[in-house]
Amino acid sequence: MSRGNGNNWDGKTRGSLAGYKIFLFFIKFFGIGFAYALLRVVTFYYYLFAAKPKKALLNFYQNTLQIPGADVKKLVRRNFFIFGQTLVDRAAFLLGKDSDFTHTFENESYLIDMRNLGKGGILLSAHLGNWETAGNLLKGRITPTINIVMLDAEVQNIKQYMDLSTGGSRFKVIAIKDDLSHVIAIRNALINNEFVAIHADRYLAGAKFIEMDFFGKKAKFPIGPFIIASKFDAPVTFVFAAKDGKYSYHLSATPPITAKMKPEEIGKLYVAELENKVKQYPEQWFNYFNFFQ
Description:
293 residues, alpha/beta, two-stranded antiparallel sheet, 10 helices, globular
């Protein structure tokens, strides 16, 4: 679970090494269904005691999505449970249990068209649904290499344990660094006709941002992903992967942007698509902090 100070995201992920070990053990020896059942207890605990994430979700659902009060608490509990499922699914894929899952891909042809242009592709997504699982599903199907740009701020011992226990992710991680070496890595990936996926919804305090209308309110979004999408000569699409069944996912892509556009223009298109996805899958909004400053 992503962590914040109540007002903004701090770039770190909540969780304990013991918790990861327990779930990896149950997934490996008892199956995904058993792990899901255990999640009922774990996520109810979070619902009772994770005050800041719970408050942030209640506020978002009530004041932004205008969801009736009687339904809000149920939706928060469901959100916590589905988030837990996505973490279990991620580990299950890495443990070789991907055959347990099915998926549909709306507009998959858009990504094939991007690949065929030979310029690589920039995939802008958000912390809605389960993009890491989508990356695992896409690898080898449309392109041999998926690169995901992210802050390398997870607790190191947890990350090391996951890598040792599961063999690591099936895609490349481009870590965002102060020396801007990630920009060179993105350029090289695109030259090699690879896809580069970037989350464009979380503004980290102190970083450059762009303020845009999101559900009729002003919200800060990181400007970096939109600058990258604007500067490189590669097609851009907005891709999301939402859980639409116990063991199934729905992937979607928007028509590629191939013409030169300003970062602000790309940002507005992205926010409009993000609003559509939040309306469609409100229970999979996984930003557990006050999104509006």
